[in-house]
């Protein structure tokens, strides 16, 4: 593997990590605001359920958008 390819791979990995961290931050901010209306020392069962559903929705949406974007980039690149 060439030095240039190693640098490209490192950049890809760092971008993927940054995207993942951004997704987690959005999930934490949006889902917490939506699901935990009265913060306390612990979560209720309904809050836990809401957070789980909200997180799943965000991840599925992110995966769909990312997949669609990658397909478009690959199509345009050919």
Automatic annotation (TrEMBL):
<keyword id="KW-0999">Mitochondrion inner membrane</keyword>
<dbReference type="GO" id="GO:0042719">
    <property type="term" value="C:mitochondrial intermembrane space chaperone complex"/>
</dbReference>
<comment type="function">
    <text>Mitochondrial intermembrane chaperone that participates in the import and insertion of some multi-pass transmembrane proteins into the mitochondrial inner membrane. Also required for the transfer of beta-barrel precursors from the TOM complex to the sorting and assembly machinery (SAM complex) of the outer membrane. Acts as a chaperone-like protein that protects the hydrophobic precursors from aggregation and guide them through the mitochondrial intermembrane space.</text>
</comment>
<keyword id="KW-0143">Chaperone</keyword>
<dbReference type="GO" id="GO:0005743">
    <property type="term" value="C:mitochondrial inner membrane"/>
</dbReference>
<dbReference type="Pfam" id="PF02953">
    <property type="entry name" value="zf-Tim10_DDP"/>
</dbReference>
<keyword id="KW-0813">Transport</keyword>
<dbReference type="GO" id="GO:0045039">
    <property type="term" value="P:protein insertion into mitochondrial inner membrane"/>
</dbReference>
<keyword id="KW-0811">Translocation</keyword>
<keyword id="KW-0862">Zinc</keyword>
<keyword id="KW-1015">Disulfide bond</keyword>
<dbReference type="InterPro" id="IPR035427">
    <property type="entry name" value="Tim10-like_dom_sf"/>
</dbReference>
<dbReference type="GO" id="GO:0046872">
    <property type="term" value="F:metal ion binding"/>
</dbReference>
<keyword id="KW-0653">Protein transport</keyword>
<keyword id="KW-0479">Metal-binding</keyword>
<comment type="similarity">
    <text>Belongs to the small Tim family.</text>
</comment>
<keyword id="KW-0496">Mitochondrion</keyword>
<keyword id="KW-0472">Membrane</keyword>
<dbReference type="GO" id="GO:0015031">
    <property type="term" value="P:protein transport"/>
</dbReference>
<dbReference type="InterPro" id="IPR004217">
    <property type="entry name" value="Tim10-like"/>
</dbReference>
<comment type="subunit">
    <text>Heterohexamer.</text>
</comment>
<feature type="domain" description="Tim10-like">
    <location>
        <begin position="10"/>
        <end position="69"/>
    </location>
</feature>
<protein>
    <recommendedName>
        <fullName>Mitochondrial import inner membrane translocase subunit</fullName>
    </recommendedName>
</protein>
